Amino acid sequence: MWSSSLLIVLLIVCVITDLRERKIYNAVLFPFLFAAIILHVVTGGLHGLSGALLGTAVGLGILLIPYLLGGMGAGDVKLLAVIGGIKGIGFVLMASIYMALAGGIIAIFVLLFRKGFITRILYFFQGLRHGMRLSLFEDKTTFPYGVAIAAGAFFQFLFPGVLPL
What's 115's DSSP letter? Predict the structure, then answer.
């Protein structure tokens, strides 16, 4: 029960800061991780500690490669690691699947509703008609991925076991 409350507070704070400032702060993440580890040790002893540390490592590992390739912020990686530390390996693995789905849906909406995208699509198809290859994407469009991470965690929290894995 304590882990669910901790998770909900963490996600609300991180979504707000990610939307407002495009940052997920270490000053928020590290105290939550520390609290989760302490509470896991108190409630589960050595088994609780190992579960929290493994969950943190798995959460970190899921987004580490996208971060190293430049497609993700460090705060996003650490947020998923803290989610793993709070709720464990199984939760963070399932939440990451939902996170990827939410991120894809958000990315489609960002592309469709950004200024000038429909015009670029029309130019792209007009260029194809005349044998020219024009790019649909001239600049790098980003969005606060902490929202997708939070959506994945909330979905896993509200509907555990929906995916048959």
Answer: T
Q: In Å, what is the CA distance from 79 to each residue of 18, 60, 74?
A: 11, 8, 9
What crossing angle do the helices spanning 117-129 and 89-113 adopt, rounded to 10°? 70
C-alpha torsion sign, points 56, 62, 65, 68: negative
Find how far residue 2's CA is from the centre of its chain.
22
Q: Which of 51, 26, 47, 52 is nearest to 37 (CA)?
A: 52
Residues 26 and 59: beta-carbon distance below 8 Å: no
Q: At 30, which amino acid appears?
A: F
Taking the chain (165 residues) in consecutive chunks of 10 residues, what is each chunk's mean pLDDT? Answer: 90 96 96 96 95 97 93 94 96 95 90 72 74 65 89 91 63
